[in-house]
Amino acid sequence: MLQYRFKQSFSAEPSISNKLFDLMEVTFPGLSSLAECARKLGASWETASTPFMRFHDDIAITHVGVLEIPMQIMGQKLTVGGVHGVATRAEFRRRGYYREVMSEVLQYCDTLYETLVLTTPQPEFYLPFGFRVVEEHIFKVKCNSTGNTNSFRVLDFTDTKDYTLLHRLLETRAPVSNIVGVVKEKPVFCVNEGSRTLYCAEDLDLIACMEIEDTRLHLFDLVTTQICPLKSILAKIPQPIEEVVIYFSPELLNVKDVQAFVHAFDETVLMVRGKFAAEGEKFMLPRSARC
Q1: Cα–Cα dist 13/4, whole Å
Q2: Which domain of life does the UniProt lineage start with (predicted)?
Q3: 276 found inside a domain
Q4: Do both 85 and 161 map to the same domain?
Q5: Average pLDDT over residues 81-86
């Protein structure tokens, strides 16, 4: 017998968390460990997400989660709804359960948010529900940074100082872009970035989500109270950098001769439902905010 539970609260029934992550691990292997990492950083999935689930014999068979993402879009601050963790067990697919749950999700969201976002490698699942694909771009800048002092250090979240720094900057961060940026958001950031290497430049009061590949710097996000010029970041890196690939709109980085390229991040597309003022602009939703 099937039992449907609408907007079940994690706090009202803590056991629902284990049932959800059983489903998540089948659908998205490794997600449970990412969620546990975020929990250790003080930003748990359960405090951020509203779960919409269907059960069979007390086993979670379908889930769609909704969380809030405070954003700045075209200079205006707003809270958008993030749809995430969409999953149905394989043996229960093609029976209409996902459609029923998503319909409940949209009824709930339409009373709260003018804009919904999600990222997915399978946009065809969401087109019937009024979501549309919004084109994203990466940005490339040629440079000739010969390397300077090594001012970045790797954050260690077992250190109370670094843990406190992360929370302070996430709570007070400036949007990385005025076209599309995120402010005062923790859970999605901690799930996406908490298990990665994060770098801190103390004198810039900045946390950088970045990777260096030979002489190429990949810059995914900056968590800081004031976005600084790109040259200030390059000056903190001790090795030569010839190209920077930026995964957000770089208009605040004070760079010239930027080339924009249409890009599907990690083979996923951004989909939106409702108003989205940045549509048609060149931007990317940062890796740290993709859900």
Answers
A1: 15
A2: Bacteria
A3: no
A4: no
A5: 97
Question: Do 122 and 145 belong to one domain?
Answer: no
User: Which residues lie below 8 Å from residue 39, measured CB to CB, with a gap of 6+?
Assistant: 45
Domain that holds residue 231: 138-263
7 lies in the same domain as 43: yes
Residue 287 domain flag? no
64 lies in the same domain as 161 = no
96 falls within a domain:
yes
DSSP string, the chain: -EEEESS--TTT-THHHHHHHHHHHHHSTTHHHHHHHHHHTT--HHHH-EEEEEEETTEEEEEEEEEEEEEEETTEEEEEEEEEEEEE-GGGTTSSHHHHHHHHHHHHHHTT-SEEEEEES-GGGTGGGT-EEE--EEEEEEEEE------EEE--TTSHHHHHHHHHHHHHPPPS-SSEEE-S--HHHHHHHTTS--EEEGGGTEEEEEEEETTEEEEEEEEESSPPPHHHHHTT--S-EEEEEESS--TTS---S-EEEE--GGG-EEEEEE--TTTTS-----GGG--
Overall number of domains in the chain: 2
pLDDT in tens, 104-131: 999 999 999 999 999 999 999 999 999 9
For residues 186 and 156, state if they share a domain: yes
Global pTM?
A: 0.93
Same domain, 23 and 121: yes
Question: CA 201 to CA 207: how far, in whole Å?
Answer: 7
119 and 151 housed in the same domain = no
